[in-house]
Amino acid sequence: MPVSNFDFPEKYQYQNGFGSYLESEAVPNALPVGQNSPQKPPLGLYAEKLSGTAFTAPRHENKQTWLYRVLPSCAHPPFEPCPPSGNESVADEPRALKRLHYIPNQLRWDPFDHATASSTGGSTEADQQQNLPDFVQGLHLLAGAGDPTLKQGLGIYVYAAGRSMDANEAYYSADGELLIVPQEGVLDIRTELGWLLVRPMEICVIPRGVRYQVRLPDGSGPARGYALELFQGRFTLPELGPIGSNGLANARDFQAPVASFENAAGAWGETAGDAERGGEYVVKAKFGGKLFRTVQRHTPFDVVAWHGNYYPYKYDLGRFNTIGTVSFDHPDPSIFTVLSAPSDHPGTAIADFVIFPPRWLVGEDTFRPPWYHRNTMSEFMGLIRGGYDAKKGGKGGFVPGGASLHNVMSGHGPDVDSYEAARNAELKPAKVGEGSCAFMFESCLMVGVTDWGLKTCQKVQEEYNRHSWGGVKVHWKGAGVH
Ligand SMILES: O=C(O)Cc1cc(O)ccc1O
Ligand SMILES: [Fe+2]
What does UniProt list as catalytic (predicted)? Predict the structure, then answer.
């Protein structure tokens, strides 16, 4: 079922369509007509082009958006490195990426902690709140591959945010496009192109370079979830092949924001101040895995109108049209692909985002859960809610907010109890996954685990393999015996 609708404030109006060429004006006639860069753009705005692909990328891949804004985004003092955070968050990423641990063992993590205060300094509730990490401070690189400076590879993150980013703070990543998968808590995301409200069972994608600010709406509680940053390429919809022209995630269900701006002006070095924000706006940038910051005298959220096909978007996983066998055998999980970031080799993804939503299993004479297997692709899994049909839940199991990694050629499959149950199950039509949703980031790359993921987070289940497969039984009866 789609995430329930409620009355959306005006800021959450959306435009529908995946990869569509869209346009949006927060003020009528802010977009120039018939050209992109007139001598004087309408309303005294600046025209600024945001290129998401090389200028010369083929038409079907070319991504760009024209922004019409109060001040161009180049007007800022030099960026300076942020000091290391000391808590192995995104600010410590370059070190983390250089020290990845490549491990052939199957790994599973207990649910990651919610945001905790970094110090006890300050006794008031407001002080304590301020000591909690915001979305950027609470982003931890768990695993990764490649190098953002070469635009190769990806980063897998978990996040735990206990407060909104400051009202005068924005963040962007030059390293890649970020897919965010909330597991608990609502993210109210202000982007240069407008607002996105992203709740558990929804996802969003923020393209490389787009500035944004993540807020936690009042009363929605702390936020926790997963994210994947693509250092290379972009997410797109998977081919449908013989499925035909509809199915899986349909293009019209992807939602892009409408233009929305803060009414504030005043360039760096000028005296004209930003009344609303006290004239100061912190912009943080992740660049080559390193965090930088600058303080500018104008809001980055001053885009009054835009047109293009390079924009953030959200998708409600409840709208996924799940397809499966109606005869026999368990299909490859690629049938559940929501988004795919292809490599240069057709059919082989740098990252596929795959979900396991509730679905009917009707296969006859079929072992219905996933088969035992080894894969040249690496498989990182998380659980948004409920359970997963191949793994037990409960303490020490695969539970919401936790994760697993089955790396290149690491054998895995149902744990012994799930296997025995499915082997003996009566094969009547059965609904699995009611109220559940697991997901997988599947990559052609070998994924290394960070120090934080292996040690600091203290969530690795040491006995994962033994508990899952230590007790697998021999059913072999000897040659010729059925
Ligand atoms: O390993 C997993 O649980 C993910 C998975 C699910 C499935 O249905 C088939 C293959 C596969 O890797
Ligand atoms: Fe698998």
Answer: 330
In tens, the pLDDT along 179-202 reads: 999 999 999 999 999 999 999 999
As for the ipTM of the complex, it is 0.99
Helix (H) or strand (E) holding 147: strand 139-147
The answer to whether the beta carbons of residues 170 and 213 sit under 8 Å apart is yes
Q: What is the rounded distance in angstroms from the CA atom of residue 412 to the CA atom of residue 291? A: 37
Give 49-90 pLDDT, tens digit per residue. 999 999 999 999 999 999 999 999 999 999 999 987 777 777
- Interatomic CA distance for residues 363 and 257, integer angstroms: 41
The CA distance from 292 to 287, in Å, is 7
Separation CA 322–CA 320 (nearest Å): 6
| Superfamily for the 10-316 domain | Jelly Rolls (2.60.120.10)
Phi-psi region of 105 (alpha: psi -120 to 50; beta: other; left: phi over 0): beta
Contact 295, 78 (CB under 8 A): no
Report the run of H or E that residue 451 belongs to, with start and end: helix 451-451
Look at the pTM and tell me if it is higher than 0.90. Answer: yes
Neighbour-count burial of 385, counting CB atoms closer than 10 A to its CB (0-12 exposed, 13-18 middle, 19+ buried) = middle
Q: Mean pLDDT over all residues of the chain? A: 92
Q: Which of 140, 298, 330, 345 is catalytic?
A: 330
Ligand nearest the Cα of residue 418 is 1
Q: 320-468: same fold as 10-316?
A: yes
Ligand 2 midpoint to CA 466 (Å) = 18
CB-CB contact of 340 with 237 (8 Å): yes
Tell whether the torsion through CA atoms of 292, 296, 299 and 305 is positive or negative.
negative
Answer whether 310's CB lies under 8 Å from 18's CB.
no
Atom of ligand 1 nearest to the CA of 440: 4
- Give 378 Cα–ligand 2 centroid separation in angstroms: 8
**Span 407-445, pLDDT tens digits:** 999 999 999 999 999 999 999 999 999 999 999 999 999
Q: Is 330 among the catalytic positions? A: yes
Q: Produce one character per residue of 159-196: b if its CB has 16 or more CB atoms within 10 Å, e if not.
A: bbbbbbbeebbbbbbebbbbbbbbbbbbbbbbbbbbbb
For the chain, the structural domain boundaries read: 10-316, 320-468
92 touches 85 (CB < 8 A): yes
